[in-house]
Records
---
Amino acid sequence: MANPFRKIAMTSASQVQLRDAQIHQLANGMVLVGEPTDAVQSAALSLLVPCGYSTDPAGRLGLTSLLCDMIVRGAGTRDSRALINDLENLGVERGESVGVSQTSFSAATLASNLAEALAIYADIVQRPELPPDQLDAGKLVCLQELRGVADEPSQKLMVALRQRTYSDPWGRSSNGTEAGVESSSAEDVTTHWSGHYRPNGTILGVAGNFDWQRVVDQVETLFADWQPVEVPPPIETPPVAGETHTAFEGNQCHIGLAFPSVPYRDPAYLRAWAAVGVLSGGMSSRLFTEVREKRGLCYTVSASLQTQRDRARVLCYAGTSAERAQETLDVTFSEIVRLGAGVENDELDRLKARIKSGLIMQQESTSARSASIARDWYHLGRIRPLEEVGGLVDSLSADDINDYLTAHPPDDFTFATLGPQPLELPRGVS
Amino acid sequence: MEFRSQRLDNGLEIVAECNDAAHSMSTGFFVRTGARDETDQLAGVSHFLEHMAFKGTPRRSADDVNREFDELGAHYNAFTSEENTVYYAAVLPEYQEPCIDLLADIMRPSLRVEDFEMEKKVILEEIQMYADQPPFGMDDKIKELHFGNHPLARSVLGTEESVGALSADQMLDYFETHYSPANMFIAAAGRVDFDALVKQVEGLCGSWAPQTTSRDVPGSNSHTDFHLVHRSSATQQYVLQLADAPASESADRYAAKLLATMFGDDSGSRLYWEFVDPGLTESASLGHYEYLGAGMFFSWISCEPVAAPEIFTRLVALQEIAELDGFSEQELGQAQSKVKARVVLGSERPRNRLFNVGGNWMQRREYRSVADDVATVDRVTLADVHRVLAEYPLTRHTTVTVGPRQQWPGSA
C-alpha cells in the first residue's frame, strides 16, 4: 500500500547546521583541523600519521602493526603502565588502528581533559620509548591477532579478496604475516618509526567543546619541533593471482566479490557511492531484498565502496550454507550486473533520506566528527562542511547516477570464496 | 532534559527523556519477552518472532515495511535477548509520527505462513553462521551447565531442530500472550514531542486487548563445572567462564560493574596487564551482565591452545588474589573515571540514551538521568566492591573451553 508519508522524506525540515571548520598548518607540514561546538560536553581527537601497512618493508609484513602496538608501551616520561593508566584516569576512550596509508589514533573524553590527552599523544608519536625488552610481547600480541582472524571466516575471506583485487601494497592485510612479524627486530621497529612517523602528512582532527585558538597554541608548542622526513612512494606490483577458493571446514560458505570504483576525491565519487547504496544500504536495498527477503538464501549480504586515496573498490560479501552457496553467488552476481542498467528515482529518494539523517546524526558524535574532518583533509585537502555535502546529495538525480553507471558499469570482477567446497564462477571471470 | 511518562488504560506505558537540544530522536517498543519465557518446544520463538515482525501487517507488505523505514532515513533494527525483545529506530524529529506509525503497526504482524517458512530459512542460516564463529555455540552451552534448569539457561537462537519444527500457529499463540500491551512499553529519547507521541500511541495502540502474562523469576541455583569441547578446525583455544553476580534489581550492580572494570576491562585492568599486554592471550576480559533475579560475571579468554591450561590456572590465581587482598583505591578511581566518561560520551547520542531509558524502565520501572548514573558510580566504595566479591566469588565458576585441544591437564 502507498505510504502516506512518502513525500515528507524529500522536504525534511532538519538541516545540517553550519559549523565552522578551522584549519591551521604548522611550518613542518602537520595540519590541524578543528570543529568546535559548545553543544556537547566532550571532545575527541583523531590523529592520522602517514604510516600505513603499505609502508611495511618486503619481508617485514606486519611491521607497521607491530610498531603501532609498541608505540603505546611508554613515551616521554611515562613508562608503559603509566601511559595507559594516565589516559584511563583522564577517562579517554581510545583506539589505535593501522590502515593502508595511515596509523590512526583516536581518543574521546570529557572536554576538560582534552589538553592533557593531547600532550600524551604528542609524546606517543614523537618520543616513544619502543622498549626492546617488550618487543617479544609486542610480537606475541600481533601473532595472537593473526591467529584470531584465522578463526573468523568472513574476515579471512575479505583479506583474501583484497589481496586478489588490489595491486601490492594496496591489498595487504594490516596484520601482515607470521613470518614478517617474527623476523622484525627492535631496530626495524625504531627505524620504521623514525622513517614514517613524521609531521609532513600527519593530520590532527579535533571536534567537540574546545577553544580553537587555545588548541592551536598548544599544538604549536607540542609539535613545532617535529622534523619532516621525505619518503619515496611504494613500488607497485600486480596482485598475486592465487587460488580463488580457500578450503575451510564449517557449515557455511563465504563469498566475496570485488569490482573497481572511484576514490573519495574523484568528482564522480558521490554518484558511484549512491549506486552502491541502492545495491546495499537499508533493508529495501536490492541485495537484501533479492538475496535475503525474497529467497531466504542467507543472513548476511552486503556491498560497500571502500576508498583509498588513489583507488577504490566495491567489496561485496555473502555468507550462506554450503548447499545454497551457488544460488547465492548467482543471484548476488546478477544483481550487481543489473545495477549497470541503472537505478530508479524512488530508490534514490530513499537513499537520500538515509544519507541526510546520517549526516545530521553524525553531529551527535564528536568522535565521528573528528575522524570525518581529518579524513576530509586527507582525501580532499579541505574540509567539506556537512551543509555542502547535504547540498550535493539534494542535487543528485537518478540520471546523474545512471550516466555514471553507463560509463562505468560493474565489470572486471574479482572473486574469492571460502568454505567446504569451491563454487562455479560466472563465465569469463576469475 | 525532562523525563515524562504516561500509561494507557490497557496497560501500555510510554516513557521518554525529552531533550530539545538534540538533533534527532530515537524510539522503540520494548517487549518483556525473550528466551527465558520459552519452553523446550518453543526454543528460539522470541527471536524468530522478532524477524517476523518485519514481514508485514494487515496494512503493509514486508516490502512496504522495509521501504518505508528507508524512506524515513531511519536507522532501525531489532534484537532479542534472554529477557527482552526490542524494536527501535533513530530518525530526524520531523519523522516521529510516521516512525511511530510504522513501529506500532509491526507490533501487530500478520505472521503469514509463506513468510514464516521463508524467514525460517534465514534464521537457520543465522544459527549456522554463529556455529562457525567463536565461541562456536559454547555461549549457550555454558549457560546450560551453570544455570541448569533456570530459565536464563535458554538459548536465544534456539537450535536447528527446535526452529525447524516450529509452526506458524505456535508462534501466533506465543505472540498473543507475550505481546500484550501491559507486557511492553514505548520508550523515546532526544527531541521528542511527548504530547503528540501519547496522542498518537493512544490512537494506534489503545484498542490492543490486554492479556495476562506471567514470568517466573526464580533466584539462581547455579552449578560449577568444567567442560572441554574439541574442535579440530579452530586455531585458537577459547575459555569461557560464568560466575553468579548481582541481578538487575540489586543496588550492587554498580559495584559489580566497577569490579569487572578493575579486574577485566579491555584495557588497563588486571587481566589486561597479566595476559593481554604481554601477548599471552589475544583477549582476556570480564563483564557483568544483569537479568531479573540473577546476574552473571562472564569471563572470556582466547589464546594459543598450548598455553591455555597455564593461562587458566593463572586466571584462577588472579581471582583468588582479588578475593583475598581486594583492590586498591587507585584502581577504583581509574575505573570510576573510565566508566563515568563512557556514560557521558554515550549520552550525547539519543540512540544510546534510548537503550539506557528503556533498559532502566524494563528492569526496574525507574528513570535515571546521566547525572544520577555519574553520581552513583562516584559513591561506590572499595568496601562495596569487596562485599560484592565476597558474596559472588569469581572462583565459584563454570568453565567451558573449546578449541583444538583434545585433553586438559587434571580433567577427565
---
Amino acid sequence: MKLSLSNKYIVIVLSFFLLLFLVIFFTTIGSVSLTLEEVIQAFFSDEETVARTIVYRMRLPRNILATLVGANLAISGILLQSVMKNPLADPGITGVSTGASVVAIFIILVAPHWIHALPLFAFIGGALACGLVFLLAWKNGIQPIRIVLAGVAVNSILGGFISLLSILYSDRIQSALFWLNGSLASKTWDDIYLLLPYSIIGLIASLFLIRSANVLQLGDESAKNLGFNVSRTRLLISAVAVFLAGVTTAIVGVIGFIGLIVPHVSRMLMGSDHKYTIPFSMVLGGIILLVADTLARTVGGAIEIPVGVITSIVGGPFFLYLLRKKGA
Amino acid sequence: MLSARRLKVGYEERVIIEDLSLSIKQGGITAIIGPNGCGKSTLLKTLSRMIPAMEGEVILEGTNLQQMKSKKVSQKICLLSQHNNAPGDLTVEQLVYYGRLPHKKWYESKTGDDQTLVDWAIEETGLTKYKQTPIAALSGGERQRAYIAQALCQKTDILLLDEPTTYLDVSYQLDLMELICEINQKFKITVVMVLHELNQASRYSDRLVIMKNGEIISDGIPNKIINQKIIQDVYQIECEIDQDPISNKPRIHPIQTIKGA
C-alpha cells in the first residue's frame, strides 16, 4: 500500500483539497438540510438569513474547530510515537488529558463559577500531570519505557480522582460527561480564536522537528553518534506534542483515538519518513475528526453525541482492521 | 589522538572498568578482544562518549571529550554500534545521508556537495546498484556495508566499530574486514574495533588489546602478544597457535575448554 515519492506529494495535496471541500460541504448537513447553493449564497450575502446564521454562526466554526482539533491531536500522536518508539503511544499516555480532566471536572462539578477560565485551568492541570510523568520518568535521561510506566501510574491515580468526583457529585455528572468524552457542541468563533494561535505555533513547531523525529527512529546510539542529544531531543519533541494535546483538550475535552489512528494510517501510506507523515497526519487528522464530528451531530437525530464517543466506537474496530491487514 | 586516562566506568552500582588507560595513535587498526563481559564494548562506548566515565577522562586531540559539544565530537569520531534498527523502508541513499547531519546546522538542508559525498560513500562500499533499495531488502552484509558508507559520509578521523561482523555469514565477514582495511589505508581513518573472532582480530589488526575483567592484560602487535599462555589465561581454553601463511599473523586453533579453571 506504500506510495511512490511523487504519489506521496499528490496524495497530500489532494487530501488537503478534500479537507477544504469537506469543511464547506458538511455545512449543508444537519437538522436543517441546506443545498450547496444556499451555503455559497450565505457566504457572499450580508443578509442575515436563516441559512447564513446556521452556516456562519454554527456549522462553519464547528467544522473549522474540528479540523484544528483533529490536526493538533494527530500531530501530537505522531510526535509522541516517534519519542516513545512505540506505535501504541497516544497523547493520553503522558497524563496530559487525565490531568486536564481532573481540573475540568472539578470546575464543572464543584466550582462552576470558574467555568470561564476552564480552558486555562485545564491546560495547567494537563501540563502539571505531564510534568509529573516526565519527572518520574527521568533518570539519567529519558527512556521511553519509563514514560509509559510513569504515565500509567499517574493516569490511574488521576482517574481515581475523576471517579471520586463523579460519585460525590453524581447529580451534576451530565455536563461533565460531555467534557470527558470530548465535544464540539455549541462551540463558536471565540473558541477558534482561542485555539488558533496555539495550534499555529504547535503545528509549525512540528514541521521543524521532522529531522529530529527521523533521527530518533535510527535508535539511541545512532542518534548520539550523529551528534544529537537524545534526551534533549525527546524532551523537545514531547513538549510540542504535549502542548498541542494540552491546548486542544483544554478547549474541547478528551477525544481519544485520533492521536493513535491517524499516525498509523499515515505511516501505512507514507512510510516512516516524517517529512511526509507529519504534513499528511495534519490533513488526515483534520478530515477524520471533521467526519466524526459531522456524524456526532447528525446520527443521533436530535440528540448530540460527544465526538469522542464516535472516534472511540468507530476508531477501535477500524484500528483492529488496520492491524490485521498489516499482518496479512 | 584519542586517549583514555584512568577511566572508571560502570552502570549504576556495577563498576565494569576500574582503572584503565589507553592511547590510540593515528592511522592503524586496533582490535580489542576479550571474553564476554570483560568491558570491551563498554570501553569502546566510553571512548565515543556514549557512556560517561565515572572517573578519569577521554582526551581527543588534547580536549576532554565531555567538555566538547556533541556535534563537534560527531565530526571527529564515528561509532558504528552493534545493534542498528533504522526503519526498514529507508533507502541506502537516505541512510547514508544521515552521516552528513553532524556537519549541518538544524535548519540546513541537503546540498549538492552532500549528494556528491553520499554517492562517493556508496560507490566506495560497492553499493551503487542498491542506492534506491530499502535497507530491509538488503542482506545482513550489505546492510552493514550501508552503515559503513554512512560512517564514511560522516568524514571522521576515527571509526569505532562494535562487533561489526557478528550476525554475518563468513563470506560477508571477510568482505567487511577487507572493506575496513581498505578504508583504513585509503582514507587514513583510524580504526578501533571490538571483535569476537580471535583470528579475525589477529589477522586484520596492527595492534591488539586483550582485556579481562575490565583491565587490559596485554597490548601490542599480534605476533608479539599472542601465545598459548595468554589465550589460556583470558579465555580458559587450550589452543594451538601457528602462523597464517597469507598474513603472517598468528592463527589460533582452540582445542578444548579448561574445566574448573
